[in-house]
Design a protein that fits this description.
about 300 residues; mainly beta; Immunoglobulin-like; 2 domains; elongated
């Protein structure tokens, strides 16, 4: 059962150094830095929906996402972090805010604990913060923590239109490397745009004298998205008439080796074709792109 969010930690940010035009490369970020003492992170996307009425009724509808507001409540915002987020300066240990300060574009990441013990990981790609609220109260006979709130306005990146990315540890396509690398950069630990490829297949293309009890084994260049390892994407059939072979699919723990095991022996002296669909994806979401086709003949 999917868990419900119950916690928040690992709040970080990174300055956006460059965000090129579409097709000109990936965005580049500075070093990821922590903001200690995360209490609350509220994301409020501002979207609008309009409906066109025609022929005496609703005819079509369209929606758009505008500015996204992020409100962070933390135990404290150190002077160094404020200088980074607001474009201010620190001189001799003194934070100096000026009217002409220009806040830089930044990305913000964090993870949320879920009730099932798993985490949800989040990155917001591009935003600017405004001067935080700073409430001060006199000390009384009861303790009242005075925690600052800072608000940012986020938009989509120019290079790829992305404004947020998320992954759950209990999602079918999650692998431990995602969580381990998530806070390395605002691409969620990966700016991988290279599609997967088939490194090898057994039986090899054009093989003859293949055992009728043989399985078909594909080895890939990188880990696959488990949701795309389906019987619809890995096919074995008789070459002559397209009769499909029934069987079971399995994948190794590294998600790089897929095995198709026929339910019963193949026919003797028969040509078979094995196909990997172009829809197979790696864990970064890149598609194979071109069908991988091999043929073999049984003994």
């Amino acid at each position: 059962m999917p868990g419900v969010k119950i916690g928040l930690n690992n709040l970080v940010y990174a300055k956006l150094i460059s965000d090129p035009e579409p097709g000109q490369g990936n965005a580049v970020y500075d070093t990821v830095k922590p903001i200690r003492g995360a209490i609350q992170a509220n994301i409020n996307p501002n979207s609008s929906t309009e409906t066109l009425f025609a022929d005496n009724g609703p005819f079509d509808t369209a929606s758009t996402t505008g500015q996204i507001t992020l409100e962070l409540n933390v135990a404290d915002i150190p002077l160094e972090v404020q200088a980074d987020l607001l474009g201010a300066t620190i001189a001799g240990g003194v934070l100096i805010n000026k009217a002409e300060d220009i806040p830089p574009w930044v990305a913000v990441g964090f993870k949320s604990l879920k009730s099932n013990g798993k985490y949800r990981y989040v990155w917001l790609a591009k935003g600017k913060f405004s001067i935080p609220e700073d409430n001060n109260e006199s000390k009384t006979d009861s303790i009242s923590f005075q925690t600052p709130t800072i608000q940012g306005s986020f938009v989509k990146r120019d290079c790829d239109d992305e404004w947020r990315r998320m992954i759950d540890e209990d999602h079918i396509d999650y692998i431990p490397a995602m969580g381990a690398n998530w806070f390395n950069n605002p691409y969620g630990g990966s700016a991988d745009t290279t599609p997967p490829s088939v490194s090898s297949v057994v039986p090899a293309d054009g093989a003859t004298g293949v055992s009728v009890s043989a399985s078909v084994v594909w080895t890939f260049s990188e880990a696959l998205a488990l949701s795309t390892v389906t019987k619809g994407n890995f096919l074995v059939f008789k070459t002559s008439d397209g009769t499909p072979v029934n069987g079971a699919l399995t994948i190794n723990s590294a998600r790089t080796v897929v095995t198709f095991t026929p339910t019963s022996n193949l026919s003797a002296s028969t040509d078979y074709t094995a196909v990997v669909s172009p829809d197979v994806k790696d864990v970064a979401g890149n598609e194979l792109g071109t069908a991988y086709i091999t043929s073999f003949t049984t003994v």
